[in-house]
Structure to design on (388 residues):
């Protein structure tokens, strides 16, 4: 099959799937309405060179709206150990579909039923269910019949996730990261003031010694920084033990970027990964990649990164963005983007938060370029999460 025209390249929203520890384990592919056959559109995206390496080790959950039309030849290029075929429960009632999917399951491909299908799920060879459990739980027997992992969607809080764990779910997706528990968002007043002070120093490119003074007052942040530079990502021959050494290894520009992200890592005190961290990494990396694709200057690319990573600070600190911005010395373009999604930087941030064809056309970004930026951003976020 020949490659599609750039204008018809599919748009996809990648939704992260987490385990009970807030660690990413998979991505669901949600294709735009104008993509035609969702599975074929997903195949187009997965033909990107090294796409599975970029998204490793995460599984890819692909929509198969019409399993009756699915052929084994279409699956030949997909690694069974990395791909989950998501099939609507309603499509499983037909015997030919059951036999076809069971055959694919026997060949090693994993089947996930979207909804509750009863015995039909077993006849399809399905291992797991994908259920919207935001309000109502499925019958207990529905989850017991398949080995899992079962995916609960619509998760709006960590409390709901805990309830779903008890019910038998082990994978979760939703906007729960945007609604952290009230007792863990901002920490005490002293900690919040220290964070804002550090952000201010980073924003004005302060002297390393000033940064070091504040870092020494925040053992958790210092720990995460040293853990990062000593990780496999840098492959150093000898361990780093001091902040000064860390600066020499990372360089000023990279140090600022990593510290901005590490602010998200330091907030969890219960051993759980902070679900905001990879989201901030995605936004920052995608903003930078798109600004580069648009031909923006290096300084503008840096501001795009900052706007992306700072765009979740109001959630992290449980403070109005106006108060956060007032405490920092940010460039006016970044301020406009964070407060009102205004100006070129703000429009780009809005596009990263919620893309659509009209917005891409207005920004002068073709769909294939946008997918490349998405892929790069998720790859970086995965690496960040594994190394921090």
């Amino acid at each position: 099959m020949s490659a599609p025209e750039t204008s018809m390249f599919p748009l996809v929203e990648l939704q992260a799937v987490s385990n009970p520890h807030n660690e990413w384990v998979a991505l669901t592919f949600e294709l735009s309405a104008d993509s035609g056959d969702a599975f074929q559109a997903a195949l187009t995206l997965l033909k990107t060179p090294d796409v599975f390496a970029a998204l490793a080790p995460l599984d890819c959950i692909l929509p198969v709206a019409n399993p009756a039309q699915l052929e084994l030849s279409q699956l030949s290029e997909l690694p069974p150990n990395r791909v989950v075929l998501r099939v609507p429960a309603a499509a499983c009632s037909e015997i030919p579909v059951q036999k076809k999917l069971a055959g694919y399951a026997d060949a090693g491909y994993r089947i996930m039923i979207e909804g509750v299908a009863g015995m039909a799920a077993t006849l399809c060879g399905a291992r797991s269910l994908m259920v919207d459990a935001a309000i109502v739980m499925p019958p207990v027997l529905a989850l017991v019949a398949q080995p899992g992992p079962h995916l609960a969607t619509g998760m709006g809080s960590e409390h709901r996730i805990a309830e779903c764990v008890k019910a038998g779910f082990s994978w979760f997706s939703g906007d729960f990261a945007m609604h952290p528990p009230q007792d863990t968002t901002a920490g005490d007043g002293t900690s919040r003031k220290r964070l804002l002070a550090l952000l201010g120093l980073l924003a004005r490119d302060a002297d390393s010694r000033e940064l070091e003074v504040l870092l020494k007052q925040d053992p958790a942040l210092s720990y995460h920084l040293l853990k990062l530079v000593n990780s496999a990502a840098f492959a150093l021959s000898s361990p780093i033990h001091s902040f000064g050494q860390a600066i020499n290894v990372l360089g000023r520009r990279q140090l600022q970027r990593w510290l901005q992200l590490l602010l998200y890592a330091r907030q969890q005190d219960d051993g759980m990964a902070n679900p905001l961290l990879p989201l901030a990494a995605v936004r920052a990396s995608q903003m930078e990649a798109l600004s580069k694709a648009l031909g923006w200057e290096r300084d503008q690319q840096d501001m795009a990164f900052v706007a992306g990573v700072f765009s979740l600070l109001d959630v992290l600190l449980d403070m109005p963005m106006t108060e956060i911005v007032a405490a920092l010395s940010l460039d006016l373009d970044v301020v406009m983007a964070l407060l009102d999604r205004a100006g070129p930087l703000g429009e780009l941030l809005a596009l990263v938060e919620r893309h659509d064809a009209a917005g891409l056309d207005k920004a002068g970004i073709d769909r294939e370029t946008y997918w490349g930026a998405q892929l790069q951003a998720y790859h970086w976020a995965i690496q960040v999460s594994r190394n921090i």
